[in-house]
Specification:
The protein is an all-alpha fold and about 425 residues long. The chain has helices at about 15-20, 20-55, 55-65, 70-75, 85-105, 110-140, 145-175, 175-200, 220-230, 235-255, 255-260, 265-285, 290-305, 315-325, 330-340, 350-375, 380-395, 400-414. About 75% of the residues lie in helices and about 0% in strands. The model is unreliable at about 1-10, about 200-205 and about 410-414 (pLDDT under 50).
Length: about 425
C-alpha cells in the first residue's frame, strides 16, 4: 500500500511536504526534464515542417503526431505499467526516448523518417507515462495524490512556458536540428536520474513497489483489464470526458504556427502559463469538493475564449484569450481524482496509462481535425469551429460525468 505519511509523520498537504518525499523527487525530476525535452523537440519539428511544406495540416500533425500511437500502447502492452519491476521498465523506456530524440537531430533526415520516429516514440512514451504514474500513485498517499498531480501538471505547464519561449529564441540563432540536440541532452539528463534511481542501494529515490500484478503482464492481461475498465460506466464516462474536449482544444493550439507564425511562441507560452496558473490554483487552493463543484465551469472556460478567433482579434487579445482558456485544463484534476477513486490498487498504473494515452491520442486527433479544416478554410475559422465542437461536447456530456461522480461517491462510501 502507498505510504500515508511524509517524513514528518503526517500526509503531505503542501508542495514543500511532497518534495521532502525522496521517492517522489526522483519521479518528479525525471518527469521535468522529459517534459522540457518534449516541448523543445515538438516546437523544433513543427517549425521545420512548416518551413519545408507550408502545410497547416502537416505542421499540426508533426507537433502532436506521437500521440497517434499512444493508443496502441494502451491496447497492447500497457499492463507492463503494473509489472513487478516498474523502475527498470522506466529506464528501458527512457533509453528508447533518448535514441529517438537523438535521431531527430540528424541533418537531412527525410520528413517521412521523422514522422516514423514520432510514431515509434509515441508508443513507448505511453508505456512510460503509465509506469511513472503507477509509481506516483504508490509513492504518495491517496489523500495527497491530487496535490502530486497538480505539482506535476504545474511543472509541465511551467516547463512548456520555458520550452516554447527558449525554443523561439533558440530557433532565431540555431537550426531545428541543433535544437533537437539540446532536447537530446535534456532527455539524457532524465535517463541519468532514472538510472540512479535503479542503482543506488540506499532509499534516496524510488524503490520497487509492492502493489503489483501477480500475473505476467502482456497483451492478454492488457486487454482483460481494459475491458473491465470500460465496462464500468463511471470510468467510461470520465475517460471519454478527459479525452475528447481537451483533445479538440489542443487541436486549436496546433494551428498557432499556421495562424500567426511570428507570434506562435507567444501564444504557446501564454497557453502554458494559463495551464500552470489553473493547476496551481485548483490543485493547491481548492478542496476536493470545490474541485468537483467547479469542474464543469472550468471545462466551459477551456473552449469559450477560443471563439474570439472567429473575428481575428489583435495579438494581445488573442494572447489573453489563450491564457484564460488554458486555465480550464485544471478541470482534468477533478476528473482524474474521481477516476482514481474508482480504480483498484493493482491496476492503477494501467488505468492511468490508458487515461494518458487516450488523452494524448485525442490531442493528435484534434490536431489532425483542426489541420484538415485549415487546409480548406482559414486557421482562425478552423480554431473557432473546433472550439465550438469541444464546447458542445462538454455541455451535452455533463449528465454522464455527474453519473460518474455519483458512482464515485457510492464507491467511496461502500
Amino acid at each position: 500500500m502507498p505510504s500515508d505519511t511524509s517524513a514528518s509523520g503526517t500526509p503531505p498537504t503542501t508542495y514543500r511536504d511532497l518534495l521532502r518525499n525522496r521517492e517522489f523527487v526522483g519521479l518528479y525530476a525525471s518527469f521535468t526534464l522529459t517534459v522540457a525535452a518534449s516541448t523543445l523537440s515538438g516546437f523544433a519539428l513543427g517549425t521545420l515542417v512548416n518551413q519545408q511544406t507550408k502545410s497547416p495540416f502537416l505542421t499540426a500533425v508533426s507537433m502532436y503526431g506521437a500521440t497517434f500511437t499512444t493508443v496502441l500502447g494502451a491496447l497492447t502492452l500497457m499492463s507492463v505499467a503494473d509489472g513487478g519491476r516498474p523502475r527498470r521498465t522506466l529506464v528501458a523506456l527512457q533509453c528508447v526516448s533518448l535514441v529517438g530524440v537523438a535521431a531527430q537531430a540528424v541533418p537531412g533526415l527525410p520528413l517521412a523518417a521523422r514522422f516514423g520516429l514520432l510514431l515509434v516514440l509515441g508508443f513507448f512514451q505511453s508505456l512510460g507515462t503509465g509506469t511513472r504514474m503507477g509509481l506516483l500513485a504508490e509513492v504518495v498517499p491517496n489523500s495527497s495524490y491530487p496535490l502530486a498531480r497538480s505539482l506535476m501538471n504545474s511543472t509541465s505547464g511551467g516547463m512548456a512556458i520555458l520550452g516554447y519561449a527558449i525554443g523561439a529564441v533558440l530557433l532565431r540563432y540555431l537550426s531545428p536540428q541543433e535544437v533537437f540536440a539540446v532536447a537530446t541532452a535534456l532527455t539524457g539528463g532524465g535517463l541519468i536520474i532514472v538510472t540512479v534511481t535503479v542503482t543506488v542501494t540506499v532509499t534516496v529515490t524510488v524503490r520497487e513497489r509492492s502493489i503489483r500484478l501477480t500475473r505476467r503482464p502482456g497483451l492478454r492481461r492488457t486487454w482483460t483489464t481494459n475491458i473491465e475498465l470500460f465496462s464500468h460506466p463511471g470510468q467510461r464516462a470520465l475517460l471519454l470526458n478527459l479525452w475528447v474536449p481537451n483533445g479538440l482544444i489542443v487541436g486549436c493550439e496546433a494551428l498557432f504556427i499556421s495562424y500567426a507564425p511570428h507570434h506562435a511562441g507567444v501564444f504557446m507560452a501564454a497557453g502554458s502559463a494559463g495551464m500552470l496558473l489553473g493547476d496551481l490554483a485548483v490543485g493547491r487552493l481548492f478542496t476536493a469538493e470545490q474541485r468537483r463543484r467547479y469542474a464543469f465551469a472550468l471545462r466551459l472556460l477551456l473552449a469559450c475564449p477560443f471563439l474570439l478567433f472567429a473575428v481575428h482579434p489583435p495579438v494581445l487579445v488573442a494572447t489573453a484569450a489563450v491564457f484564460i482558456a488554458s486555465a480550464g485544463f485544471a478541470a482534468t484534476l477533478a476528473l482524474q481524482e474521481q477516476l482514481l477513486e474508482l480504480t483498484p490498487d493493482p491496476v492503477r498504473g494501467q488505468l492511468q496509462g490508458v487515461e494518458s494515452a487516450g488523452r494524448m491520442t485525442w490531442q493528435g486527433i484534434g490536431a489532425a481535425i483542426a489541420g484538415g479544416l485549415a487546409q480548406h478554410f482559414t486557421s482562425g475559422t478552423a480554431i473557432t469551429f473546433v472550439a465550438a465542437v469541444s464546447l458542445a461536447i462538454t455541455v451535452f456530456s455533463r449528465s454522464f460525468v455527474v453519473r460518474g461522480r455519483t458512482v464515485s461517491v457510492q464507491a467511496a462510501n461502500a
